[in-house]
């Protein structure tokens, strides 16, 4: 009877229904839906899906954890077994296996040492990719029209930025782009705010926040934020924390400011300084204009005192007299030139008259008649020459003279050849006497130094130990000088 009552009052559930009920309880719990858990990684697995599965444990217990691929790519460090981490996310139930697990949305190394190690790894990677290169950094605009302030809308940093910018340079238009600067959602918010600032077409972006711990400033060390600063179309100033704080955006940005207030001073000029500078320029221009007016005035006074301007009639009278003299000189020169040309014309007319065709023909006929007469006289004389009357006699005489000359030439050439042959034999004998090979065959030799090939013609040309080459009639002999002795001549040694 008791069992029947219990069955009527108690609902019997399946395993799946119980698991689903527990999951709903966990998902609705305010603490478990958004919490931070500190622990040590163990049993880490990375399947092909890109998700990360591991156990999170401490001295008392162990719980399962999963970081899905979308979040795993934004961690900014490489998790490994044994690493102490702080994970942010929610606790839920994996219904298929009926076990609870931590679904990770945010994870960082636990402790300053771990954060610094992860930061150095990411810093080295970005530097190798060229994100820190000085040559890619752009100069800040000198007079920016629109400045985007990417920072928290409620922090002290934005108040300092607005106050200093409006005081120093009122013409600048300020565009506040609110962003989350701390916590696990900060990195994504900063990236979105930078994108919005660029889409607004601003001239300059100031990315900043006030000071804080390393964990508070960590969003500015995230890889996604660094790459967003690198990809910004507008020049960017990184002004995060205090002067001693350093984050990755400081290295990637076009300029780094020690504080947000310093960033405002870097971004715009001071109008008071500009007015002072313009005043100095105006004073310099006034002084320069005064100098020019004074110098030109003195020059004008000097020109006004010139004699030409004082008494211009003297100058014009002198120039008129010089003009008259020049006209007279031109007329005289022209008259002389006309006379010379008249004389040349008369000379040419006389020469032209001598070339009259009729006169030339008459003179040529007379010359030709005289030439014919002289030619006839010479022909008559030639016809009277004995050679023309008796040509055989002339040929015989010439043949006799030719034979006599031939005999004389033969005799003379024989004498010359004999004389030349004797001189040639004498020269050959002299040449044979000078032949060095003949001297070698008679027992003489030629001695040379081996090092430089110079002939040894005296004892002083070699020293003990020198290597010499001795040329004889049938070859060369190499020897070393062991001693030398000078032959006595005329009682001297």
Name a few traits of the molecule:
single chain, 493 residues, alpha/beta, OB fold (Dihydrolipoamide Acetyltransferase, E2P), Rossmann fold, 5 domains, 13 strands, 17% strand
Describe the overall structure:
The protein is α/β, with parallel strands linked by helices and 493 residues long. It folds into five domains: 15-110, Beta Barrel (OB fold (Dihydrolipoamide Acetyltransferase, E2P)), CATH 2.40.50.140; 134-269, Rossmann fold, CATH 3.40.50.2300; 311-353; 361-398; 440-480, no CATH class. Helix content is 52%, strand content 17%. The protein has helices at residues 2-9, 15-28, 69-72, 112-128, 156-168, 186-199, 214-217, 223-230, 248-252, 260-267, 271-304, 307-310, 312-354, 357-383, 386-389, 391-434, 436-441; strands at residues 35-45, 52-57, 62-67, 84-94, 99-109, 146-151, 173-178, 204-209, 236-240, 255-256, 446-449, 467-472, 475-480. The strands form three sheets. The chain has a five-stranded mixed β-barrel with strand order 1-2-3-5-4. Helix 6 (186-199) runs parallel beside helix 8. The chain is elongated. The model has no long low-confidence stretch (mean pLDDT 84).
């Amino acid at each position: 009877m008791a069992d029947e009552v219990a069955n009527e009052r108690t609902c019997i559930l399946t395993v799946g229904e119980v698991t689903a009920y527990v999951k709903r309880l966990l998902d609705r719990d305010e603490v478990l839906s958004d919490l931070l858990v500190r622990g040590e990684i163990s049993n880490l697995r990375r399947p092909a899906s890109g998700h990360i599965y591991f156990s999170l444990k401490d001295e008392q217990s162990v719980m399962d954890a999963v970081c899905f691929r979308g979040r795993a790519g934004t961690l900014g460090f490489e998790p490994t077994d044994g690493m102490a981490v702080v994970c942010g996310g929610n606790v839920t139930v994996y219904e298929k296996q009926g076990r609870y697990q931590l679904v990770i949305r945010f994870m960082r190394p636990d402790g300053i040492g771990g954060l610094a190690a992860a930061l150095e790894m990411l810093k080295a990677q970005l530097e190798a990719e060229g994100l820190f290169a000085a040559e890619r950094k752009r100069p800040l605009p000198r007079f920016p029209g629109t400045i985007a302030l990417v920072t928290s809308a409620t922090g002290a940093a934005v108040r300092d930025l607005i106050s200093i910018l409006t005081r120093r340079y009122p013409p600048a238009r300020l565009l506040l782009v609110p962003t989350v600067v701390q916590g696990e959602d900060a990195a994504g918010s900063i990236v979105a705010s930078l994108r919005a600032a660029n889409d607004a077409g601003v001239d300059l972006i100031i990315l900043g926040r006030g000071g804080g711990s390393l964990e508070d400033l960590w969003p500015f060390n995230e890889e996604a934020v660094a790459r967003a600063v690198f990809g910004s179309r507008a020049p960017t100033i990184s002004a995060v924390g205090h002067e001693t704080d350093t984050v990755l955006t400081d290295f990637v940005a076009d300029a780094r400011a020690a504080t947000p207030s310093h960033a405002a001073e870097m971004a715009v000029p001071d109008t008071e300084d500009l007015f002072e500078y313009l005043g100095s320029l105006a004073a310099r221009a006034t002084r320069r204009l005064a100098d020019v007016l004074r110098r030109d005035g003195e020059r004008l006074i000097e020109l006004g005192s010139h004699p030409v301007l004082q008494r211009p009639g003297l100058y014009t009278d002198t120039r008129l007299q010089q003009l008259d003299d020049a006209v007279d000189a031109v007329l005289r020169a022209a008259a002389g030139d006309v006379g010379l040309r008249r004389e040349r014309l008369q000379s040419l007319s006389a020469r032209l008259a001598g070339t009259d065709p009729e006169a030339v023909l008459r003179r040529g006929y007379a010359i030709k008649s005289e030439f014919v007469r002289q030619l006839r006289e010479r022909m008559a004389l030639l016809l009277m020459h004995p050679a023309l009357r008796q040509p055989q006699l002339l040929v015989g005489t010439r043949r006799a003279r030719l034979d006599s000359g031939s005999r004389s030439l033969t005799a003379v050439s024989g004498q010359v050849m004999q004389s030349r042959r004797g001189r040639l034999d004498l020269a050959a004998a002299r040449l044979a006497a000078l032949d060095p090979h003949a001297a070698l065959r008679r027992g003489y030799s030629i001695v040379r130094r081996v090092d430089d090939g110079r002939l040894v013609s005296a004892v002083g040309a070699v020293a003990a130990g020198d290597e010499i080459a001795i040329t004889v009639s049938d070859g060369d002999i190499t020897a070393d000088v062991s001693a030398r002795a000078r032959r006595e001549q005329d009682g001297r040694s």
